[in-house]
Amino acid sequence: MMKLAVSWEVKRITTKFEFKIARSAESFYDVVIVKITDGEQAGYGEAAPSRRYHDSTTQVTTLLENLTNEIISLPVQDAELRQAKIEALFSDSFSLQAALDMAFWDLHAKQLGKPLHQVLGAEIEMPISSYTIGISDQDMIKPKLDEAISYPILKIKLGSPQDEEIMGVIRQHTDKILRVDANEGWKTVDEAKRRIEWLAGQNVEFIEQPMPAMQLDDIAKLHDWSPLPIVADENSVRPEDVPGLSGVYHGINIKLMKCGGLTNALKMVALAQKHHLDLMMGCMVETSVAISAAAQIGSFMRWLDLDGNVLIANDPFIGVGNVAGKLILSNEPGIGVRRR
Known about the structure:
- It is a single chain.
- The chain is an alpha/beta fold.
- It folds into two domains: 5-113, Enolase-like, N-terminal domain (Enolase-like, domain 1); 118-339, Enolase-like C-terminal domain (TIM Barrel), CATH 3.20.20.
- It is built from twelve helices and 15 strands.
- It has helices spanning 57-66, 68-72, 79-89, 94-112, 116-119, 138-147, 163-173, 189-199, 216-223, 256-259, 262-274, 288-295; strands at residues 5-21, 24-37, 42-47, 131-133, 153-157, 177-181, 204-208, 230-232, 251-254, 278-281, 303-304, 317-318, 321-323, 326-328, 338-339.
């Protein structure tokens, strides 16, 4: 087999609408597309860095430039050894860990001539994904709902002083099932309880990260009381976080850009099952490269929020299909992506 080679490019992806959450608002994101080749096949990965986890595009590209030789020396077939080395080399960039891990998995599956979900023991059928509506000025809510008209489940970003107004406008236009993500926006137990109790009557399925991650003891006070499941996001970062969330949350949100890729995501799945936590697969705003990679293990989840690629206007790749939230995996080897 020929020696490996690695290349990368920065892509600016623009959102169809401003994407606003409790702590930030953006209309574009810079991601890094990584390609690893063996001379015959190419594996693709994506880094979508987040300031919340002290990561940046500049950091990702600098690490790639400085450690190219170490990357092409990583094993394709031994995922455990590879992941240990990736984490040692790139401890400061979770998104680069994810990009390399998914690129190697894509390459490995292509070498085997199989779709990656088959290699990983997952099924092609999976839950319906939600469509995310960011925190919005009231006059922008209707256009966003129109964009999501075919999606039966919506994820609503709350965590601002306008929560009730936003929900009021949404409920004027739709009675769809909603999932609420507060993104650490509610700061006290009393505030969180008021919001959750009110949302329990709004056809809401669950609440994601109601309070700041550093207030884990306060979040634990919601666990037995809450009429709705509480799902960890910012508290659910790496595999080692999972055991400590039992009895605090009812479920965890796994994101490749936080956990460091599919290898660690699978570890989180096993740990969540061991500790009786429900499973959700989420995403950042990402292209079809990262979304297609995450969808490979979608069948292991109770809930999916893999909509990052349909929130952008200029996806440079074609990959997993999304028809009204139903994700359609490719039968092609690997993660099934190709350039437009």
